[in-house]
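Notes from the 1:1 (GR / supervisor)

We went over the backlog. Supervisor wanted to see one worked example end to end before approving the batch request, so GR pasted a single chain during the call. The sequence is below; no edits were made to it. Supervisor asked that the structure be written out right there so they could see what the output format looks like.
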Amino acid sequence: MKKIVVLTGAGISAESGIQTFRDADGLWEGHDVMSVASPEGFAANPELVLDFYNQRRKQLLEVLPNKAHYNLVELEKHFNVEIVTQNVDDLHERSGSKNVTHLHGELLKVRSSANEQNVLNWKKDLFLGDLCAKKSQLRPHIVWFGEMVPMLDKAIEITQKADILVIIGTSMQVYPAASLIDFVKTNTPIYFIDPIPYVSESNFNNLTIIKEVASSGTDKLLELLS
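Structure output shown during the call:
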């Protein structure tokens, strides 16, 4: 069975109602990104950061997977599918995808500030004073700016084994996630689904651009791969 590796970004979740990471003005939900997505921001104002992610978590629990998520599950009937996502939502898992690697963490998990291996499932609000078993403050299980990306090596290993690479809803401009495309074998077929693609077919061998949003783009992908 051929192996399809799917790299997904904010564009696949946008149709579910989850806003993309940053607006054009560089703000995230009205906040400077570094104030809510960096260790320095958390140290300066932990209550602001916790409240920010509490709001994101509430929003996530109110939305549902969309057709693009379910189309990727459909692919599993015919291919060995692994998803590497930059998204922190759980919409891939809720739609039924079996193999999902989160590069940037998961919104429905928290971890100890003192031990990043101590990770807990978490669907309620998180407050200052919520502590791990060893009495350290819990924080969102999110990879913030300036932090290591612990799942990157696993993502590279997955990408290296791809027979087909599919990229959905990400500009592939943010590193280190953007570097993953460099690890596919030479001449691997690549399908790039985005209404405003940031690559051209001259950039890569075997590149097919599908200029569509994720739902209709994955409809076309299923037709092409069937």
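Supervisor's comment: Residues 6 and 166 are 5 Å apart (CA to CA).
Batch request approved.
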